[in-house]
Design goal:
Length: 316
């Protein structure tokens, strides 16, 4: 509104009106102007009040959200149960892939660890993994964390058993060798017997097998694999109790190969392929097939000989 122009008009009119009328006009003008100022002031106050309401509402909302977030984060469902490794099964722990390692052996390792009071999403599982890797059969371990409620899933990748060792065919293995990419490990009695899904080649020996070199273990493994493939017969065991006179027991027949001598032994085993089909027809009459010489010979059982009770030597 242009006030100077209005004032000129009012003055111009005041010349033509009486003093009383002039006073009344001025009063009315002042009242209107005062009313306008009051409205503006009220609008300004209302605006300031609304802005203050919005500001404090914003502060209250943020504070409420922070409080709710803190309450949710601090819920006990975000923290691992302190007794998670006390017994199994339980709803806070899943274990997979442990065919050789028993659940009891796994928990006994983890019980010694103190569980940090942290939400599971901040928990570093490396400590648990390193502890589990102390178990000889474990090659790798993966631990996955789950939220709300907090729980763990442990997945084991176990080593591959290749050879089992025993002093006699009738005794269960006393140790097992594993081979994973050339890394050889010995599994003791605490991990035996192996589950049926873990098949190994059995070696009969009185030798101190703990001193065997990785090269020898690989050689025996390759030899056992070669025997099965060449004969198409399941290998029961390789008897090296007398290193100069080694026997190989297949499912239906026994082979005598003499002293193990590098690649020559593999060449001698090939000689059984042409005679094996015929020999299996009379397998009940055969004591062993002799592969020590250039010409393959078959040793028949002595029908008049009475069976003797085997005399087992103590293993060293």
């Amino acid at each position: 509104m242009d006030f100077p122009i209005i004032e000129k008009k009012v003055i111009k009119r005041m010349k033509t009106i009486s003093p009383d009328s002039e006073s009344q006009i001025i009063n009315n003008y002042n009242k209107r102007k005062l009313s306008q100022f009051k409205k503006r002031r009220n609008l300004r106050k209302t605006k300031i009040f609304r802005e203050n309401i919005r500001f404090w509402a914003r502060i209250f909302s943020i504070g409420l959200l922070v409080l709710i977030f803190w309450i949710i984060v601090d819920l006990p469902q975000w923290y691992l149960n302190k007794n998670i490794f006390t017994s199994y099964p339980n709803k806070y722990l899943e274990i997979e892939g442990n065919k050789i390692v028993s659940t009891r052996q796994l928990l006994s390792k983890l019980k010694a660890l103190k569980i940090p009071h942290k939400p599971v999403y901040l928990l570093n599982t490396k400590t648990f993994e390193n502890k589990i890797l102390e178990l000889t059969p474990v090659k790798k371990v993966f631990i996955r964390r789950y939220w709300f409620p907090a729980r763990l899933r442990i997945v084991l990748d176990e080593r591959t058993p290749v050879l089992s060792v025993t002093p006699t065919p009738k005794i269960e293995p006393v140790a097992v060798f594993t081979n994973d990419d050339g890394i050889i490990k010995i599994l003791g009695k605490e991990y035996l017997p192996l589950p049926s899904s873990k098949e190994t080649y059995k070696i009969i020996t009185y030798d101190q097998f703990s001193l065997w070199s990785p090269k020898l273990i690989k050689y025996l493994t390759d030899l056992a694999f070669y025997i099965e493939n060449a004969s198409n017969e399941k290998l029961e065991y390789i008897d090296i109790r007398n290193p100069d006179d080694v026997f190989i027991q297949l499912k239906d027949v026994k082979l005598r190969i003499g002293r193990i001598n590098g690649s020559t032994t593999f060449s001698n085993i090939v000689k059984v392929i042409p005679v094996l089909p015929e020999a299996l027809k009379t397998k009940n009459e055969i004591e062993y097939i002799d592969l020590r010489w250039d010409n393959v010979s078959i040793k028949l059982k002595d029908k008049n000989k009475k069976p003797e009770q085997p005399k087992e030597k103590a293993a060293t």
